[in-house]
Amino acid sequence: MKPSSFIDISIPAQRLVLVDEGRVIKSYPVSTAKNGLGELRGSECTPRGWHKIRAKIGVGLPIYSVFKARRPTGEIYSPDLAEQFPERDWILTRILWLGGLEPGKNRYGSVDTAWRYIYIHGCPDELMNGKPESHGCIRMINADLLDLFERVAINTEVYIHE
Q: Could you tell me the pTM of the whole model?
């Protein structure tokens, strides 16, 4: 049964919609996986189905803060930093770490969303062009992510679908 308050992520629309008590509260553009949809570890695909926010990371940090392995590096993203480290997959501003809720589909074993480290996170705003280009995560514009981060709680359900 679908909850009355949740996050809805449409892969075809590349949109994240925040639903509260059955009403759309906000809608944001996102970028999902360049490799499409899929649940297998190592696939670099965005996992489908029902998930929950298992952790909120980055409270109080400045916008464009850089994360590695869910820890702030102390760096603030800039074009100069991007030039110094062109190979980095930038995780910026905040992290909403997802955990799957469907055993065998996106939870446990080789399909476990949490242990694939799938997040909703900020990325360099210039990479947000309406196309799927991530390595599996759901990328957002940093200001949008800050807004969403303040509106959701740990255990908020997230539905990712075609």
A: 0.96
